Amino acid sequence: MKLITAEQFRQERDAGSLEQDSNAEIDEIVLTIIKEVRESGDKALLQYTEKLDGVKLNQLAVTDEEFREARNAVSKTFIKALKAAKQNITDFHAKQKEVSWFTHSEDGIMLGQKVTPLDKVGVYVPGGKAAYPSTVLMNVIPAKLAGVNEIVITTPPDTNGKISPEVLTAAEMVGADAVYKVGGAQAIAALAYGTPTVKKVAKIVGPGNSFVARAKKWVYGDVAIDMIAGPSEICVVADETASPEFVAADLLSQAEHDEQARSICITTSPTLAEEIKQTIDQQTEKLERKEIIQKSLSANGRIINVSDLAEAFSLVNEIAPEHLQLMIENPSEKLGMVKHAGAIFLGNYSPEPLGDYFAGPNHTLPTSGTAAFASPLGVYDFLKKSSIIQYSNSALQAASDHIITMAEAEGLTAHANSIKVRKDAYHA
Predict the structure, then answer these.
(1) Domain that residue 71 falls in
(2) Annotated binding-site residue? 232
(3) Is 69 a known active-site residue?
(4) What positions does UniProt annotate as the active site of this protein (predicted)?
(5) Residue 66 known to be catalytic
(6) Alpha-carbon gap, residue 174 to 89, rounded angstroms
(7) Which tens digit of pLDDT belongs to each residue from 262-314?
(8) In this structure, are 214 and 257 located in the same domain?
């Protein structure tokens, strides 16, 4: 893991040194998959599952028997943890609920906003290198609270044609309506356009690999999506009060996601920077996903020395990280210096995994700098709004000249005429 200055980091970033996928190569594959799923439906899904996941399936939907097997396979300790996390996530997201509103004025004008949940949502849950029951909770719970009528999950099977029992148990606990054994770009295509088994949805949410992300980009417009997620990332701001053991552990917790994950520490203490680097090497040796971590840190891991916290926060706001940890003295007093971050963790005892699994706020967050303009997933992502407008005849007449003037200024005489015929009828 490199020790560099802020200027060196900017030079690397601007030169494109931080590792990224070649979208052109991925897009060629993804567009072929989308085309075949649109043309061949379930047949294409089964063929790609055999080709890419190494298993030949007879059907795509998870059966009731498989749900029962999953319940029996997981531990009571896991069930207890899942229920506690579900409660925290529910309590937090319940505060995001929105309601319709209307205003009435004495001159006969009623305006308002009608809030309506989406009809059907598809949740993508990654598989492959790890199982993610937490993703089930984070995506299904806010959709349920929004009032979405039908929520389905797609997730890739293992080589035995099975879905993780933890994922299935979580899906059942939060009330998902169906789970389908299909992953990758083919799952996104199925959710976007529909097949005989997997029906078209209004919106697709949930993280995935590069192929999933690019597929979401290509189907966007035919269906809504939450975001185009890039590699997972963490940025830790640390001063001399931070524990090098804590900082190292938190950087490693992101690096184990995959080889493209980004782990960055910005520190005002050169001594701490050296201690963190040494501690990372020591802790890595003890971790199961050592090989992935080492590749991730080599490509995208950086410890950046800065002169003071002002420089640190300036760099943070340029990066706009997915996860930001403030491991500094009195972190809440510095919160106002943060403009762009997906989730902000304050202090030495609020590590990023707390947000991933348990605290309550959503862990589906904007990545790759998009926190500069995007927000975490929430109940609001599963709602749409309709504007309500009602004028009385007299209220319309009072506004008619202004409307006609605006329409004629734009050269839209039919718009103006729509008002004029009512004006003429009023004075007739």
Answers:
(1) 41-225
(2) yes
(3) no
(4) 322 (proton acceptor), 323 (proton acceptor)
(5) no
(6) 11
(7) 999 999 999 999 999 999 999 999 999 999 999 999 999 999 999 999 999 99
(8) no
